[in-house]
Specification:
Arc Repressor Mutant, subunit A; disordered N terminus; 5% strand; two-stranded antiparallel ribbon; Diphtheria Toxin Repressor, domain 2; mainly alpha; 2 strands; elongated; 53% helix
């Protein structure tokens, strides 16, 4: 436990992680085809049941992160896209840092970044980006969203 007055960052709740994971999944799936992403696509990508996906999509709709239309699918709102791009930026910067600064093999960085992407502060994000010279791509060659959180050119 951190001493009082410490600047230790509290762990994020599992629900925050789930929100970020859903936003990231919807973003990725929406880049694969035109139109809304289906409930089934989201469920399959995240390894959950369609009922679980539907429940979370309704919750995200209530939070203003997606536009969910039953039987039609889901699209990210501008706020939802911002959440997804922030998590994607964190993920890809972490992958780059683990690979370039720490020498971790590129086949292991994804799994580590999946966990860490939810926990880094904006300050740490800035430090990693500066240390690496604001990289444009992760170790897999995938574009990293810039600090402005605009979608990267895929």
């Amino acid at each position: 436990m951190a001493p009082s007055g410490s600047s230790a960052r509290p762990r994020r709740s599992p629900s925050t992680e789930a929100i970020e994971d859903y936003a990231k999944a919807i973003y990725a799936l929406s880049r694969q085809h035109q139109g809304p992403v289906t409930n089934g696509e989201v469920a399959e990508r995240l390894g959950v049941t369609p009922a679980t996906a539907t429940s979370m999509l309704k919750r995200l709709d209530g939070l203003g992160l997606v536009d969910y239309q039953p039987y039609m699918g889901v699209t990210l709102t501008p706020a939802g896209e911002k959440v997804s791009l922030e998590v994607i930026r964190h993920h890809r910067l972490i992958e780059a840092y683990l690979s370039e600064a720490l020498g971790m093999p590129s086949d292991r960085v994804h799994e580590e970044a999946e966990v860490l992407e939810h926990y880094i502060s904006e300050e740490l994000e800035l430090l990693i980006a500066a240390k690496l010279g604001e990289p444009s791509h992760d170790p897999h060659g995938t574009p990293i969203p810039g600090p402005d959180l605009r979608p990267p050119a895929e």
